[in-house]
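Hi Y.,

Following your request, here is the sequence exactly as I used it, all 212 residues.
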Amino acid sequence: MNEILDITIRSLWVSGSATIISSLWSILLAYKLSRSRGASRYIIPFFEALIGIPTVLIGLLLYMILSSRGPLGLFRLLYTPYAIILGQAILITPLITSICYRVLSSSWNTYGELAYTLGASEKQIMAIVLRESIPGIIAASVMGFSRAIGELGIALMVGGNIRGFTRVLTTAIALEVSKGEFEIAVVLGTILVVLVVAISFSLRILRRMYRV
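Below is the corresponding structure, written out as C-alpha cells. Let me know if you'd prefer a different format.
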C-alpha cells in the first residue's frame, strides 16, 4: 500500500512538473504565434502533426542525448525523474501550444485589437489577452497533464522504472502485467483514471468560478 501511494505521488509530481514547465514556454510561444500570422501558418500545422508522435520515439531521442555518450551526458539526468519530466514536457508542448494558439488568437481578435486601437501598450494588451484566455489555457493544461501522466514510452526509456526512484503509475502497470499480477495492475490503472478525472473536474470548477 505504501509503495502504491509512493508511486501515485511521484506520478503526480513528475507529470505536474512537466505540465507546468511545458505550459510556461507553450503559452508564450502561442502568444507570439498569435501575433505573427505568417509564422503561425507553418508552425501550428507542424505542431498539430507532432501531437500524435509516438512517445517511444521521443524516449529514444532523449536516451541518446542524455546517455553518457550523448551531448548532455555530463549532467547525468538519465534514469532520474528529471529526465521523465523533460521528456513529458517536450511531449505535450505541441498539444498545449496548438490549443493555446487557437484560444489566444480568438482573444486577440476580440479584445487585443480593440485595446490596440484604444492606445494600450504591448504589455497591457498581452495582460488583457492572457486574462481573457485563462479558461482555455486551463483546458489546454489539463489535456497536457492527462497526456503526460498516461504516457509510458518516455517514462520507461529514460526513467528505467527504478523502484522508489523513477517508477510511476504507467511503468508500474506495465511491470505488474509482465509479472502476471493483473489485480495490482487493475488497481494502479484505476488510480490513474481516477486521478485524471478528478483533476479534470477540479479544473473545470475553477474555470466556471473564473467565468463567474
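Residues 2-211 form a domain with the MetI-like fold fold (CATH 1.10.3720.10).

Thanks again,
Q.
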